[in-house]
Amino acid sequence: MGKRKLDENDAPSVEVADTKANPSETKEPTFADFDLDPRLLQAVASQRFKAPTPIQQKAIPLALDGKDVIARARTGSGKTAAYLLPVLQSILKKKSQKAALPGLAALILVPTRELAQQVTKVIESLAAYCTKEIQVVKLSDNVPDQVSKALLSNAPDIVVATPARALHNIKNASLSVEQLTHLVLDEADLVLSYGYDDDLQSIAGTIPKGIQTILMSATLTAEVDTLKGIFCRNPTLLDLGDEDTATNTLTQFVVKCAEDEKFLLTYVTYKLQLFKGKSIIFVQSVDRSYRLKLFFEQFGIRSCILNSELPVNSRLHVVSEFNRNVYDIIIASDENEVIPDEESPRDGDDEQAEEGDGAAKSKKGENAPPKKKRKASKDKEYGVSRGIDFRNVSCVINFDLPTTAKSYEHRIGRTARASQNGMALSFVIPKDQYRKHMPTSVESAEHDEKVLAKITKQQAKKGREVKPYAFDMKQVNSFRYRMNDALRAVTTVAVREARVRELRQELAKSEKLKRHFEENPQELSHLVRHDTELRAARTQAHLKHVPDYLLPAEGKKALTANDVGFVPFRKDREGKGRRGRSFKGRGSKAGGGRKSNPLKTLRGRPRSKK
């Protein structure tokens, strides 16, 4: 192995690849140009990949040549296939030449369990026509050591794991890395940000020297530079993060409003279907997600929740069903948001409550110990704003603005993927409106205007504009009394009870899902629903219907001053069911008549007389 090239600071130098296309080359590239195994090409064709994306065009040839690669590309650009195809090709080539020793060939490290599940599914799809040669194991779940040893006893070719689970199995001798040839870090910057520093340092000391390393990320940060120094040998840098700014299909809007008006505008938006298609609503904390879900239930708006308290099986099932269009709205709590040290941290509702209780008790007596609150355990390996492939998301709503411009970029990356249209709408609380409505206030909103200034500056550098979304508040105010009625029913006690109730339900569903899919691994039918009502303390049936007198004479589009908004993925089907068939009962009249009595339509023959 050759020595690494050092720069003037005695640091490994980096070759920067030329990502500019040759104007003379007019032929559109195909996956066949990479000289991949026919079985991989067949799998690629079955996935309906038309042509390699820019990151795949650059990264796959370099990885096939055995070079270390650090690649930056936007979310949804095809980074997963860009590193998986070379890894699978290398394994198949060695096995065909009988040059591969039995044992682990590739270790793929990811920051979250959801991403581990997603990467495993992509591997299975790309290796669908060579399953006898490629064995993959996912080690992201907290299972007993005996189970992990049983999974690894057959010497899999690829292991997908979080750094903590990979190191645990290496230490207990369940996972051998002696034959390792490939190491991949997906969402590399996030791996360190999630606190895996010590785990990665330990893993680096156990793996063989000189193996091929691939680092994939949506951003190039100090974390990626740290990982480069730990794992890479003279890597090639591919920076394709901003190549698609000219053809960007994401539209960004911001609304400055009072704290309670977040609930008002969101209610009007979804109840009157100003936005169509699927959407993800990001909130600050777990409590906040249940408060918004209970608020939606008052108006008959169905939604499901994603947070770190829910069992991993339930979370994975929610994402799967969302991608299959079973659910349209996901309320995601981004409590594991990555925050730089110089910026104020975002505290969840629970932490705020504990600090408040402690401060109150310190006034009564310094020696009085603060009462400890029992908190539900949260999954540290949970992440929803990065990595997960949410498909066909038409809108991302930052119900609670993130605390950094970096987190904002990750959130809006859930939409406008793969050249599809998308929209991001963010609510911002002006300084003079902060703490004006205490029941709906969150501490992080104090810095919304400062964060918005950083977001606007960051997006401007990329040639993007954050536009104001003007609701006509004179028209919207007619819905305000309904919003107040609903908020009064969503009390702190109701939120706490709903939180406990759903956690209990999801634990039962998680075990049911686990047993079902163990017995039926290919079964993808709808098994359980996650958008069931949690029932607030007080429900009012009349809120689920919008009377005509509340709507402006010009129609619901008059609620917004500018003619912008929804990004539909599905066509409206008035009077039709989910499969497009009209609901017309036998005997129904045009314009809607009384349904026929089924008992009167029965025709029977009298018994024959003997």
From TrEMBL:
<dbReference type="Pfam" id="PF00270">
    <property type="entry name" value="DEAD"/>
</dbReference>
<keyword id="KW-0175">Coiled coil</keyword>
<feature type="domain" description="Helicase ATP-binding">
    <location>
        <begin position="60"/>
        <end position="238"/>
    </location>
</feature>
<protein>
    <recommendedName>
        <fullName>RNA helicase</fullName>
        <ecNumber>3.6.4.13</ecNumber>
    </recommendedName>
</protein>
<feature type="region of interest" description="Disordered">
    <location>
        <begin position="570"/>
        <end position="610"/>
    </location>
</feature>
<keyword id="KW-0694">RNA-binding</keyword>
<dbReference type="GO" id="GO:0005524">
    <property type="term" value="F:ATP binding"/>
</dbReference>
<dbReference type="GO" id="GO:0005829">
    <property type="term" value="C:cytosol"/>
</dbReference>
<keyword id="KW-0067">ATP-binding</keyword>
<dbReference type="GO" id="GO:0016787">
    <property type="term" value="F:hydrolase activity"/>
</dbReference>
<dbReference type="InterPro" id="IPR014014">
    <property type="entry name" value="RNA_helicase_DEAD_Q_motif"/>
</dbReference>
<feature type="compositionally biased region" description="Acidic residues">
    <location>
        <begin position="338"/>
        <end position="357"/>
    </location>
</feature>
<dbReference type="GO" id="GO:0042254">
    <property type="term" value="P:ribosome biogenesis"/>
</dbReference>
<feature type="domain" description="Helicase C-terminal">
    <location>
        <begin position="249"/>
        <end position="474"/>
    </location>
</feature>
<feature type="region of interest" description="Disordered">
    <location>
        <begin position="338"/>
        <end position="380"/>
    </location>
</feature>
<feature type="domain" description="DEAD-box RNA helicase Q">
    <location>
        <begin position="29"/>
        <end position="57"/>
    </location>
</feature>
<feature type="compositionally biased region" description="Basic residues">
    <location>
        <begin position="578"/>
        <end position="587"/>
    </location>
</feature>
<dbReference type="GO" id="GO:0003724">
    <property type="term" value="F:RNA helicase activity"/>
</dbReference>
<comment type="similarity">
    <text>Belongs to the DEAD box helicase family. DDX56/DBP9 subfamily.</text>
</comment>
<keyword id="KW-0378">Hydrolase</keyword>
<keyword id="KW-0547">Nucleotide-binding</keyword>
<dbReference type="InterPro" id="IPR011545">
    <property type="entry name" value="DEAD/DEAH_box_helicase_dom"/>
</dbReference>
<dbReference type="InterPro" id="IPR027417">
    <property type="entry name" value="P-loop_NTPase"/>
</dbReference>
<keyword id="KW-0347">Helicase</keyword>
<feature type="short sequence motif" description="Q motif">
    <location>
        <begin position="29"/>
        <end position="57"/>
    </location>
</feature>
<feature type="coiled-coil region">
    <location>
        <begin position="493"/>
        <end position="520"/>
    </location>
</feature>
<feature type="region of interest" description="Disordered">
    <location>
        <begin position="1"/>
        <end position="31"/>
    </location>
</feature>
<comment type="function">
    <text>ATP-binding RNA helicase involved in the biogenesis of 60S ribosomal subunits and is required for the normal formation of 25S and 5.8S rRNAs.</text>
</comment>
<keyword id="KW-0539">Nucleus</keyword>
<dbReference type="InterPro" id="IPR001650">
    <property type="entry name" value="Helicase_C-like"/>
</dbReference>
<dbReference type="Pfam" id="PF00271">
    <property type="entry name" value="Helicase_C"/>
</dbReference>
<dbReference type="InterPro" id="IPR014001">
    <property type="entry name" value="Helicase_ATP-bd"/>
</dbReference>
<keyword id="KW-0690">Ribosome biogenesis</keyword>
<dbReference type="GO" id="GO:0003723">
    <property type="term" value="F:RNA binding"/>
</dbReference>
<dbReference type="GO" id="GO:0010467">
    <property type="term" value="P:gene expression"/>
</dbReference>
<dbReference type="GO" id="GO:0005634">
    <property type="term" value="C:nucleus"/>
</dbReference>
<dbReference type="InterPro" id="IPR050079">
    <property type="entry name" value="DEAD_box_RNA_helicase"/>
</dbReference>
